[in-house]
């Protein structure tokens, strides 16, 4: 179906032009990068922007670089660029593994990580890994730059802290300072392109430190703080896992929809927590299921 809605189209050549356009049009404008979300929403009648600002021509936004302590992911970096980056695969395997689970090859060639978090859908696959790595979202506007911790970025379904004249310049992901292992466990209805019924990210650091985050089982992707508190400082054991599974229903608030019932999501979240924890610990110790192989 063709796009019937008319809008003005701009393609700024640099950041200054982008800042000026957003300052001028504010809530009337929408940013276009990969377009895998915006174009569909315009076609389906959910978005009616007066202005579309295409940012793909701004060089600074395409940077994907590592300085030894932090990974910077520019706003136009696609999921396949993340997957194909050897540093991401080696240093940030949780981000790499979750990126591989996003949609299909065709979508990943265009979809960007920045666009994924700006969509703020409850099932976004990039959410758990960025929450766990305690990433920082870099926002810019005519007023300057501000940085927001990923754990404070989401306000609700399709709602973020972004102001109407701001844009995401990039995401800064700090490198964990300890030996670690991780896992991203995604439950879908079938192999191939599908939204998560449950998504669970886990990072285990040397010294029995645990970070856990989920998506698709609440209004926003979020950390599982109660489970983390229970686990932290303790070596993983079957009895500890069972205690952690009992807290699942206090951490998540899934709904019943066309993809799964609330009860099924809760049950599978418990199964996924056990498998994900064991896989993360095994991977930290150099054994177990290789990164990228499905655990569910």
Q: How much helicity do the residues have?
A: 25-40%
Strand content: 15-25%
Q: What is the number of strand segments?
A: 14
SSE order, one letter for each helix or strand: EHEHEEEHHHHHHEEEEEEEEEHHHH
Any idea what the radius of gyration is?
19 Å
- The total count of helices amounts to 12
Strand arrangement in the largest pleated sheet: 4-5-10-6-7
Give the tally of structural domains: 3
Average residue pLDDT: 95
Features:
296 residues; alpha+beta; Uridine Diphospho-n-acetylenolpyruvylglucosamine Reductase, domain 2; Uridine Diphospho-n-acetylenolpyruvylglucosamine Reductase, domain 3; Enolase-like, domain 1; 3 domains; 5-stranded antiparallel beta sheet; 4-stranded antiparallel beta sheet; 12 helices; 14 strands; 23% strand; globular
List the helices and strands and how they pair.
Blueprint: E1 8-10, H1 15-25, E2 29-32, H2 38-43, E3 51-54, E4 64-66, E5 70-74, H3 79-83, H4 86-91, H5 93-100, H6 105-108, H7 113-119, H8 126-132, E6 136-141, E7 144-149, E8 154-156, E9 159-160, E10 167-174, E11 180-187, E12 198-205, E13 209-215, E14 222-223, H9 225-231, H10 238-246, H11 248-251, H12 262-284
Parallel strand pairs: 1-3, 2-3
Antiparallel strand pairs: 4-5, 5-10, 6-7, 6-10, 8-9, 11-12, 12-13, 13-14
Give a quick summary of the entry:
This protein has 296 residues and is of the alpha+beta class. The protein contains 12 helices and 14 strands.
Overview of this protein structure:
By secondary structure, the chain is of the alpha+beta class. The protein folds into 3 domains: 8-54, Uridine Diphospho-n-acetylenolpyruvylglucosamine Reductase, domain 2, CATH 3.30.43.10; 59-174, Uridine Diphospho-n-acetylenolpyruvylglucosamine Reductase, domain 3; 180-284, CO dehydrogenase flavoprotein, C-terminal domain (Enolase-like, domain 1). 33% of the residues lie in helices and 23% in strands. The chain is built from 12 helices and 14 strands. The strands form 4 sheets. A 5-stranded antiparallel β-sheet has the order 4-5-10-6-7. Helix 10 (238-246) packs antiparallel against helix 12. The mean pLDDT is 95.
């Amino acid at each position: 179906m063709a796009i019937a809605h008319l809008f003005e189209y701009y393609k700024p050549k640099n950041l200054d032009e982008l800042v000026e356009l957003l300052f001028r049009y504010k809530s009337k404008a929408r940013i276009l990068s990969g377009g895998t979300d915006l174009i569909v929403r315009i076609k389906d009648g959910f978005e009616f922007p007066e202005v579309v600002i295409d940012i793909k021509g701004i060089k600074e936004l395409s940077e994907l670089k590592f300085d030894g302590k932090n990974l910077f992911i520019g706003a136009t970096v696609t999921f396949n660029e993340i997957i194909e980056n050897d540093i991401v695969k080696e240093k940030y395997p949780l981000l790499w593994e979750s990126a591989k689970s996003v949609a299909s090859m065709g979508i990943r060639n265009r979809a960007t990580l920045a666009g994924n978090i700006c969509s703020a859908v409850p099932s976004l696959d990039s959410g758990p890994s960025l929450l766990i790595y305690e990433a920082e979202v870099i926002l810019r506007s005519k007023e300057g730059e501000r940085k927001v911790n990923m754990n404070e970025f989401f306000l609700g379904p399709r709602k973020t802290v972004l102001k109407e004249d701001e844009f995401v310049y990039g995401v800064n992901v700090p490198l964990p300072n300890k030996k670690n292992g991780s896992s991203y466990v995604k439950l879908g209805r079938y192999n191939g392109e599908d939204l998560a019924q449950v998504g669970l990210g886990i990072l285990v650091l040397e010294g029995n430190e645990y970070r856990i985050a989920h998506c698709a089982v609440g209004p926003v992707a979020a950390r599982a703080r109660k489970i983390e508190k229970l686990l932290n400082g303790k070596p993983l054991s079957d009895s500890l896992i069972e205690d952690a599974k009992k807290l699942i229903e206090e951490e998540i608030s899934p709904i019943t929809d066309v993809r799964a019932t609330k009860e099924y999501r809760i049950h599978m979240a418990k199964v996924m927590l056990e498998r994900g924890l064991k896989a993360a610990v095994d991977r930290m110790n150099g054994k177990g299921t290789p990164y990228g192989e499905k655990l569910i």
